[in-house]
Each structure stands twice: as C-alpha cells, then as structure tokens.
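Field reference: sequence -> structure
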Amino acid sequence: MKTILRISFVVVLLCLFALPVQAQDKEKNETPYWYYSFLKFESYDKVNEFQKFHEEAIVPIVKEAKNQGTLLDYKFLRHHTGDEYNIVVARKHPSWCSITANWRGKALDAIEKDEDKKKAFWDKYSELVNTMSHYDCIYIQLY
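Structure field:
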C-alpha cells in the first residue's frame, strides 16, 4: 500500500511540475518571435552612415541567415517625421533559440572567409552601435 501511495505521489509531482515545463519549452522552440530594435542616432549623418553600412554589409548577412533558417523575415524602417528613434529593425526568428544563437556571426562566417574582413565588419558595427541609443522589444505574433 505504501508503495502505491509513493508511486502516486511521484506521478502527481511529475504532472504538476514536469508537464508545464515541457509545454513552456515547446513554446520557446516553436513560436516565431519578432525582435524589434529601436535605434536613435544623434545626427542624420550617422543615420545615413548606418543605412549605407546596413545596405552594404548587413543585408548580405540577413540573406544568408534567411537561407540558414535563423531568420524568417527582416524589415529595416527609417523614421519619416518627428524627433523619435530614427531606425527600427524588425527581425522575425523561428524560435527563441534562434534569437539567443549567434545568428549574425554564423551567417557572416558562411559568406566571408577572410578574417580581416570579418574583424573590419565587427569593428564598424561596434563603432556605429556606440554612437546611438537603442532599446529592444521582443513580441510573439498572435495572428
């Protein structure tokens, strides 16, 4: 009798704690996420510089990330009027894991073999990132 009670207790604990964790992990692995970055540069010269860098260096990385499946969609928006954040970048990832993985670095490694060029990319990217303020938001798409 005690053995049956112990087994029942273990089964109840598993149902209470293990199953919700599995459901949560399933959502993290299967739900697409939209990752929005809102960027604000101090001058429109920097906005123009970032846009040029984006077109020349980041767009090829985005295309490769889409080919690899770590990005599903990507939008680059430039603010039209007012004094708000100048650039919004929206990235649709297929899962939580693809957000936390180094998707940019993996895509860059696939399209550029020259280590000096990769270093130059990261140096320029860091330089531009350090000249702006930004914040990020992550959303799930409901419908």
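Note: DSSP finds five helices and four strands in the chain.
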